[in-house]
Design a protein that fits this description.
The complex is a heterodimer of chains A (about 110) and B (about 110).
Chain A (H helix, E strand, L loop, with lengths): L2 E3 L4 E5 L4 E3 L2 E3 L4 E8 L5 E7 L5 E3 L5 E5 L4 E6 L8 E9 L6 E3 L3 E6 L1
Parallel strand pairs in A: 2-12
Antiparallel strand pairs in A: 1-4, 3-9, 5-6, 5-10, 7-8, 8-9, 10-11, 10-12
Chain B lengths: L3 E4 L2 E4 L5 E7 L5 E8 L3 E10 L2 E4 L6 E3 L9 E3 L8 E9 L6 E4 L3 E5 L1
Parallel strand pairs in B: 2-11
Antiparallel strand pairs in B: 1-3, 3-8, 4-5, 4-9, 5-6, 7-8, 9-10, 9-11
């Protein structure tokens, strides 16, 4: 069965430091991979996606993610964190076969400390 | 272009009552889905649809029904509400048939079942 794992419930980073939010996946086909952000009392906002091509994907608000097929990972990164980056981040996967489900991880809460 | 709209924003039900959560999109997306968000559980897929007349079950379909009679609308029906269905419900729509992937979430419906 396809699944997405976000091993950290919470990540704390000092403002200005680089941040990484981890995501690993398990699928049987070629994955579409996504990152979303959710601010308090809001819906989810799309950050970036990987479908094919360059393993390093750049998205909104200065975020990027690296697709690593051998490690089945898609970690979210940003070179210099801002306090305004504090939010809940979700990784998601869609498998390119007849099953069009999009499955989300449990989320990682990112705290950027001023 | 309103994106994805959900009504109501808030709802309180008594155990055993039924209701329908409405979801509509005006982007001609073929794919629509319903998720519930619970603390520590992330987003879990309830039902999804890959086009008008086609629906399928997600991870947690029990207690919920859906139909997709038009491309625009994807209502979620709670047949007999239970306290375990207290959650925040998000509807999403997406175009996923080509590389120009886009997905949008509605603002959510906060449901409390007493």
């Amino acid at each position: 069965a396809q699944s997405v794992a976000q091993p950290e419930d919470q990540v704390n980073v000092a403002e200005g430091n680089p941040l990484t939010v981890k995501c690993t996946y398990s699928v049987s086909g070629n994955p579409y991979l996504f990152w979303y952000v959710q601010y308090p009392n809001r819906g989810l906002q799309f950050l970036l996606k990987y479908i094919t091509g360059d393993n390093l994907v750049k998205g909104s608000y200065g975020f990027e993610a690296e697709f690593n097929k051998s490690q089945t990972s898609f970690h979210l990164k940003k070179p210099s964190a801002l306090v305004s980056d504090s939010a809940l981040y979700f990784c998601a996967v869609r498998v390119m076969n007849r099953d069009d489900k999009i499955i989300f991880g449990k989320g990682t809460r990112l705290h950027i400390l001023p | 272009n309103a994106g994805v709209t959900q009504t109501p924003k808030f709802q309180v039900l008594k155990t055993g009552q039924s209701m329908t959560l409405q979801c509509a999109q005006d982007m001609n997306h073929e794919y629509m889905s319903w998720y519930r968000q619970d603390p520590g559980m992330g987003l879990r897929l309830i039902h999804y649809s890959v086009g008008a007349g086609i629906t399928d079950q997600g991870e947690v379909p029990n207690g919920y029904n859906v139909s997709r009679s038009t491309t625009e609308d994807f209502p979620l029906r709670l047949l007999s509400a239970a306290p375990s269905q207290t959650s925040v419900y998000f509807c999403a729509s997406s175009r996923i048939r080509d590389r120009r992937y886009e997905q949008y979430f509605g603002p959510g419906t906060r449901l409390t079942v007493t």
